[in-house]
# Entry
Amino acid sequence: METPRTSEGAKGRKGPASPGSAWEVLRVATGLGLTSFGGPIAHLGYFREEYVKKRKWLDEKTYADLVALCQFLPGPASSQVGIAIGLLRAGLPGAVASWFGFTIPSVLALLGFAWWIHGADIGEAGWLHGLMVVAVAVVAQAVWGMAKALAPDRPRGTLALLAAGAALAWPTAGTQVAIIIAAGLFGWGFLPKKELEEPVSIAIPIQRRTAIGCWVLLVILLLGLPFVAQITHSYWAALAEGFFRTGSLVFGGGHVVLPLLESVVVPPGWVTSETFLAGYGAAQAIPGPLFTFASYLGAIAAGLPGALLATLSIFLPSFLLVTGTLPFWSQIRRYPAFRAAFAGVNAAVVGILLAALYDPVFTKAIQGPLDFALALIAFGLLMIWKLPPWVVVIVTAVGGVLLSGI
# Structure
């Protein structure tokens, strides 16, 4: 049998010195899943504190290299870092345990919200409208932060604005994919190609043929699921295809999942715009990855089976991407053109999210001057007062109730 290889050509310190158990990984990851509020950047801080400083499962340089890898890949960066750490600690069972522990608490919380909102007679509830309004502030904050980080210069800022215009002019899932591809090609050809420092050597407990198999499976599913959904006209195949495609194409940050998922579930009528935005607002108030918003949407669309299918479909690409890329990461990082291509993609997704801020987030949530004033208050609480998102969600929900009585 082929011996697992360490990334070739890299210098520096290696990964975990001693293996652990999947049960150990599950226990620690579950604790993080119950307490990690604040979004992907905060999650990475929690991970560093727990895995690097407290438990010393890996060193600072290895952790930084894993974060760089997961920022490079599409998908939820914090979940992918957790999957990678579980993989290094306890192999593929550790990767699954890490994902399960970190993800399931927020899945259960959003399933409970979906069950309650689906069965409750909410009508024109003010708190529900408040959740829609807080989505405006949250997405505006995400656009602001991502624009400063991912589109800070003239070429990338222009690319972001062009992407926003295209996404608004042709609001389809196909347009979003085309924008991402075109932006990657533009970055590859025209953006500056920066040399990167030599990555550290990481001991990878999987074989390279397993990694190649993951890439093959990713391509088969990404190309095959749309074909299966089209020829079978199966509701379940269409649901799986939409969430799998979203999980494969989210670049730049967790909030980019918003426009991609909206294009999957709202146009077919599986979820209304109002219920979609209310769930997105509620997702800000719970710990764990934002991608579990898919669990809520699946539950609204098709009950518990839909929630399970949506959750597995949107996270499966992360497993395939991390497992398929980690053994080759040292070689990939040697090609600056790849970095330039992804710089173009990241600038474009800022534009896609900017388009989503207008439609559907703003157009559905803001129905008058008072709604806009409430959104401004929420934005100020996030940006100026630096309050945690869950606090702002509660404040805005209460504000929605007060406005409903005016």
Observations:
- DSSP finds 16 helices and no strands in the chain.
